[in-house]
Amino acid sequence: MERIEKLMNFLKDSPNDNFLRHALALEYIKIGEDEKAKNLFINILNETPDYVGSYYHIAKLLERLGETNEAIFYYEKGMDVAKKLKDNHSYNELQAAHEDLID
After folding, report:
1. Which of 43, 50, 52, 86 has the most CB atoms at less than 10 Å from its CB?
2. Cβ partners under 8 Å of residue 73, min gap 6
3. How many C-beta atoms lie closer than 10 Å to residue 29's C-beta?
4. Which domains does the chain carry?
């Protein structure tokens, strides 16, 4: 909880900081607050579609929640963004997770 409190305090000064919001979403996942995490990831990606790191994490969360079609959507969208950004590492991670899900 201490990390969440610290992140929330940082976000008071920088409410649109994607790094902080992403970190907070990951902390929510750790404590089982999946809906809060999901909403944060969706907000990040709606506001900053090129924030490629969040695609993997939201897709993994959705996959775990049994929302397979939504997970596939975010894996594919993330691959498109990673390709556009020439971020081969992210592309490969997203592609491998996508393939594991659809196989």
Report:
1. 52
2. none
3. 19
4. 2-102 (1.25.40.10)
Residues ≥6 apart with Cβ < 8 Å to 90: 52, 53, 55, 56, 78, 82
Best CA proximity match to 37, nearest among 4, 66, 70, 76: 4
Residue 102: what pLDDT?
93
Distance CA 45, CA 62 (A): 14
Structure tokens at 32: 């089982």
Q: How far apart are the C-alpha atoms of 20 and 22, rounded to whole Å?
A: 5
Burial code (b: 16+ CB inside 10 Å, e: under 16) for 50-73 equals ebbbbbbbbbbbbbeeebeebbbe
* Predicted pLDDT at 90: 97
When pLDDT is averaged across residues 73-96 and rounded to a whole number, the result is 98
pLDDT of residue 103: 85
